[in-house]
Design goal:
It is a single chain. By secondary structure, the chain is mainly α. It has 2 domains: 62 residues, no CATH class; 46 residues, no CATH class. The chain is 62% helix and 0% strand. The longest helix has 15 residues.
Length: 120
């Protein structure tokens, strides 16, 4: 996901080395990281980059430097209340207030998933 932001894993690690933890936690890369382990596998220095990014996410939330968006607040609330998530409810809550980019395709996908029992 590094190609999606101006920051790369290398830049985030450099922020940590310089002691700029808040900047590292607020880096766009930290929010976009898919935790695919690719950067960890490819790191020539053997740094566990994905674990570092995960630790930055936790630290940013604990310190209040990073605020969760509506989707993540809904996700966390579902886990706290029921111990599991409802994909349909989560999708609806995440989409409330947003204009869909592809409304017709989204509608067809919704109906297809509903018909196959993927949404409960």
């Amino acid at each position: 996901m590094a190609f999606e932001t101006s920051h790369t894993p290398r830049k985030v690690i450099r922020f940590i080395q310089w002691g700029w933890l808040q900047e590292a936690c607020q880096s766009p890369f930290v929010g976009l990281c898919a935790e695919c382990q690719t950067c960890t596998v490819r790191c020539p220095r053997g740094v566990d980059v994905s674990e570092t990014i995960l630790a930055l996410r936790r630290l940013g939330r604990e310190k209040g430097w990073v605020k969760p968006d509506r989707f993540h607040r809904t996700f966390e609330r579902m886990i706290q209340e029921r111990g599991r998530i409802s994909e349909l409810r989560l999708g609806i809550m995440g989409a409330v207030g947003k204009v869909p980019l592809h409304p017709i395709e989204d509608l067809f996908l919704f109906l297809k998933m509903l018909r196959r029992g993927r949404l409960r």
